[in-house]
Amino acid sequence: MKNTAEQFTDTHKATLQALQGFTTQAFAGMEKLVELNMAASKAMMEESFSHTQAMLAAKDPKELLALQAGLIAPLADKTSAYAQHVQAIVTGSTADLAKAMEAKTAEAQKAFGGVLENLTKNAPAGSETAVAAFKNALTAGQNAIETAQAQAKKAVETAQATFNAAATQAADAVKKAATV
């Protein structure tokens, strides 16, 4: 059986590895957002140049107005599609990160439980009060972590719902403007 110091060291190593994994996942989500924004910017730039060239080639005001009207309708669909892509990336990244964090938290709690059990078994006689106080402190800490995780999960869900509502409203507003 490992001694308490080795268990603490192993637990800290596992925590560091978990943090590295979380950071990697967070950056993967950010990379997806950057790639989406770069692709959207490139497409917008190309479409803008094409539209400007078409407008410059227009023969009369009627053709010019038709070109302008033709620009607005696809914009609504593209805006909606962009918002859906962003939502999918954020939702997927958040869900993956939450699952990983919950799993690592459970592992950490189990590891701390093992350390605590080992510490309790190896505690010198007469230190029962100190061991009990340490156990209570760890339990309170774990409860605080669980509460914080639950609140963070609710906050993420609320933020996603707000984002979904805003994206829907924006897409509806653009579609409404396109039909006017």
Features:
single chain; 180 residues; mainly alpha; 93% helix; 0% strand; elongated
Can you tell me about this structure?
The protein has 180 residues and is an all-alpha fold. It has one domain. Helix content is 93%, strand content 0%. The chain has three helices and no strands. It is elongated, with a radius of gyration of 28 Å.
Note the topology.
Blueprint: H1 4-56, H2 61-122, H3 128-179
Concise summary:
By secondary structure, the protein is an all-alpha fold. The protein has three helices and no strands. The chain is 93% helix and 0% strand.
Task: Give the count of structural domains.
Answer: 1
- What gyration radius follows from the Cα positions, in whole Å? 28 Å
Q: What is the terminal separation in angstroms?
A: 76 Å
Order of helices and strands: HHH
Task: Tell me roughly what share of residues is in helical segments.
Answer: over 70%
Helical element count? Answer: 3
Q: Sum up the overall morphology in one term.
A: elongated
- Structural category: mainly alpha
Q: Which stretches are poorly predicted, pLDDT < 50 over at least 5 residues? A: none
Strand portion? under 5%
Q: What composes the largest sheet?
A: none
Number of strands: 0
Q: Residue-averaged pLDDT, rounded?
A: 79
